[in-house]
Automatic annotation (TrEMBL):
InterPro entries: DUF805 (IPR008523). The chain crosses the membrane at residues 25-42, 54-72, 79-101, 113-136. This is DUF805 domain-containing protein. Pfam families: DUF805. Keywords: Membrane, Transmembrane, Transmembrane helix. The keyword Membrane applies.
Length: 164
C-alpha cells in the first residue's frame, strides 16, 4: 500500500502525463492524510505556527496535483478539468466570504446576499461531489488518448481483491 505513496511522491513527482489507477490515487490520499495529521500534531506539540505541516504540504502539493491529473486521465477526462473545478470553487467561496463580510460590516443587508450565498454553496458542494465521483470511477479499459491502461501491467488492484 505504501508503495503507491512512494510511486506518486518519488517516481512521478511532477508527472502530469499518463494515467493513475484508483488505488494509486486513493492510497496516496490516505497516506497524505495520515502524514498531514502527524505533522499537525508535531507542530501543535512544539507550538509552531509555520512548521512541519507547512513544509510537508508544500512538498506534496505538486505530486498531489499530478496524481489527480493522471487519475482524471484514467477515466478519459482532461486534467485541466481539475483546474476549472478548483477555480469555480474558489470563486464561489469568495462570493460566500464577500457576502458574509458585507452583511456583517453593514455595507449591505444580509437578505440581499442570501440567495447568492446559497447558490454559491450549492455549486461548491455539487462540484465537490462530482469530483469525488470522478475520482472513484473505474478507469477506461484498454488504452485511451492519455496512455495505456495502468491495470494492463498485471499488478493487483484493490477493487479486484476477492472477486472471481
Amino acid at each position: 500500500m505504501f508503495n503507491w505513496y512512494k510511486k506518486v511522491v518519488f517516481e512521478n513527482y511532477a508527472n502530469f502525463n499518463g494515467r493513475a489507477r484508483r488505488s494509486e490515487y486513493w492510497y496516496f490520499t490516505l497516506f497524505n492524510l495520515i502524514f498531514s495529521v502527524i505533522t499537525m500534531a508535531i507542530d501543535k506539540a512544539l507550538n509552531l505556527e509555520i512548521g512541519l505541516n507547512t513544509v510537508y504540504g508544500l512538498a506534496v502539493f505538486i505530486p498531489g496535483l499530478a496524481v489527480a491529473f493522471r487519475r482524471l486521465h484514467d477515466i478519459g477526462k482532461s486534467g485541466w478539468l481539475l483546474v476549472i473545478i478548483y477555480l469555480a470553487m474558489i470563486i464561489c467561496a469568495a462570493v460566500m466570504v464577500g457576502a458574509s463580510l458585507s452583511a456583517l460590516s453593514g455595507v449591505a443587508s444580509p437578505e440581499g446576499f442570501g440567495i447568492g450565498v446559497i447558490i454559491a454553496g450549492v455549486v461548491v458542494f455539487g462540484l465537490a461531489i462530482w469530483l469525488l465521483v470522478m475520482f472513484c470511477t473505474n478507469g477506461d479499459v484498454g488504452e485511451n488518448k492519455y496512455g495505456p491502461d495502468p491495470k494492463a501491467d498485471g499488478s493487483e488492484d484493490i477493487s479486484q481483491i476477492g472477486v472471481e
